Amino acid sequence: TIILGLESSCDETAAALVTADGRILAHRLATQEEAHRPYGGVVPEIAARAHVEALSPLIEAALADAKMTLADVDVIAATAGPGLIGGVMVGLVTGKALAHAAGKPLVAVNHLEGHALSPRLADRTLQFPYLLLLVSGGHCQLLHVKGPGDYARLATTIDDAAGEAFDKTAKLLGLGYPGGPLIEKAAAMGNPKAVPLPRPLAGTAEPHFSFAGLKSAVMRAVQSGHYATEDIAASFQQAVIDCLVDRTRRALGESAGVTALVVAGGVAANQAIRAALEDLAAAHDLPFVAPPLWLCTDNAAMIAWAGAERYAAGMVDDLSVPARPRWPLDPAAEKARGAGV
Ligand code: ATP
Ligand code: MG
Ligand code: FE
């Protein structure tokens, strides 16, 4: 079984071909970072137009890389949300058109499920259920991943996402966009103890994350003029690590029976964060799984793979399936906490 995956929910356009047993036959990606850089963040209208231009050539290129045609593809998987609605519609409508024209089944994939299942594409021995720290540009959550479409959310952020905190801090420091990799680079040359910064919610009995207070503290440190950029970056990154480790340690106490501690999403590309979580897993005698860096940030291989897992579980979608700007993995937990959290 060969799955074509399409991704267009944010500022990466991507197409990939993956087999049901987890072989990546081709993966192509075009990033729009240059187009958005002057604005310091993703501009939805620019993103949607760029996805329209980039997607068809990427699909052609991926098929050519695999020496295949659409006739060789068995399943079409496209991101159907959450994300910027204009971009999501570009990928989903393209997926629907291909599925209709070629007479293939369509799987509408939740982008977050793409991130959540990507560790199983990277490591085919990883079994359900696992404890997942999902840290990305728009999300910061702890989840029990029990199977495709089967998630229990233990924690989420009450304000900013982890990646958002990296991006906003990079902007405050004048480092540029996207901020995560630039902060990581600057932090490597700084002293993580130089700037006293808070660890919001760390040590509390409640399960959630918070990063807004950290961002404000960084702003005050910048405005004070007392600190070097590298020292602020290093201290900020250390504060984020301490928060992520503290909250994940708490969640491990509610995770009897999990097979592994797993991290995924764009922020999981950060080496210092990976190292800290690996230590935490070792202290709990659990295997630690993190996908390779390119599979952490947005890509279509993870969408094809989530499509493969859903298809194998009998989940296919009608061509009327909608694009969704919001789409929680655990709707019950979202409802219990109220909209926005
Ligand atoms: P979501 O997946 O929540 O819809 P998204 O798709 O925009 O959001 P991803 O592509 O998964 O997010 O991740 C992008 C985020 O990851 C950005 O905020 C970026 O700054 C962050 N990021 C990327 N590399 C690193 C890194 N090395 N260190 C820290 N953060 C990073
Ligand atoms: Mg991106
Ligand atoms: Fe993402």
Automatic annotation (TrEMBL):
One of its GO terms (molecular function) is tRNA N(6)-L-threonylcarbamoyladenine synthase activity. Keywords: Acyltransferase, Cytoplasm, Iron, Metal-binding, Transferase, tRNA processing. Binds 1 Fe(2+) ion per subunit. It catalyses: L-threonylcarbamoyladenylate + adenosine(37) in tRNA = N(6)-L-threonylcarbamoyladenosine(37) in tRNA + AMP + H(+). It is found in: Cytoplasm. Residues 24-305 form the Gcp-like domain. Required for the formation of a threonylcarbamoyl group on adenosine at position 37 (t(6)A37) in tRNAs that read codons beginning with adenine. Is involved in the transfer of the threonylcarbamoyl moiety of threonylcarbamoyl-AMP (TC-AMP) to the N6 group of A37, together with TsaE and TsaB. TsaD likely plays a direct catalytic role in this reaction. Belongs to the KAE1 / TsaD family. This is tRNA N6-adenosine threonylcarbamoyltransferase. It comes from Sphingobium soli. The gene is tsaD.
